[in-house]
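Worked example 2:
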Amino acid sequence: MKHAIFFDLDGTLLNSHNTICKQTIATVEALKLAGHTIFIATGRQFYATIPFHKQLGLNTPIITLNGGAIYDKDGILLQKTFIDPLFVTTILQDKTFANITEVSNFETPNLSVMTNKNPGVIAYLHQQMPTGLIPNYGNTRHHFSSFPILSQVVNMYSFVASDQFEDLKIYLNKTITDSVSFRYGDDPLIPFVEIFSKNCSKATGIAYVLNYLGLDDIRTMAFGDGQNDFEMLEYVDVGVAMKNAVSSLVACSDEQTPLTHQESGVSDFLNTYFKI
C-alpha cells in the first residue's frame, strides 16, 4: 500500500551536525521509486528547509512554521495561517511581557523579525541553519513601522532567562486568548515558549497538502520528536516517535524507532517497515 510520509527535520531526519546521512537519503530514494510520496513538515522557515528538500529530490509541497506557511517546491506560498494581529499588538506593547522576556522572534512567511538582536539567541538559531546559510534577522523597530507585519505573524518565539520561565508561564496563562495557544520549547539550554494560532499545526498542514494533491484517501505516516509534533503524529495513520523524542510524544505515538536521529533512526525504521 502506498503511503504519504511526513518527516520532521530537527531531531528526526537531521542529526546533530544538521545533516541528513547517506543511509537516510538512500532509503528516501527507494521509497520514492516504490511509489510513496515524501514530505517535510517542520517548524523551520522555508529558506532553512528548501536545501534539504532539494537534497532529497522532492517536488512535494513543504510544510513550514509548524503548518503556518505551506509552499510549493519553487517557494510559492500556497497557504498561510496568522496569529490574531490584536494579540500580537498587545504582546508587543505590554511592558510586563517586555520585562519578562529577553527577546521575542516574530516569524512571518520567510522572514524573522526580533524585538532586539540578542547575540545569544541569534547564535542559537544560526546553529540550526544549513551550512553557509546566515539569515538576516530584522528588527521590529524598523520592520513593524515599514509594512503591516503585525497582521502576518505565523508564530512567535519568546526567549527568557531560566529564572524568568515560570513568570512567563503565569503571564501567558493570564493573557492568552481563545484564538491563540502556546507550548514550551524542547531545548533545556535555552528556555523559550512558542505562541501560535490555535487552529494551526503540522496536522492542519498535512490535511491541506493531501487535499491539494488529491491524496485524501492515501495511508499516512509521520515521524517526529518534539512538542510541535503531537498533532501530526495523532492525525496520521501511523505516528512514529523517535527514540530520542520527548516522553509525552512517545506516549501518544503508534510506533517508536529503535534508534535515535544520531543513528539514522528514520532510515532503520523505514527499511524494516517497508522491507527495503
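The chain has a mean pLDDT of 89. The first strand starts at residue 3 and ends at 7.
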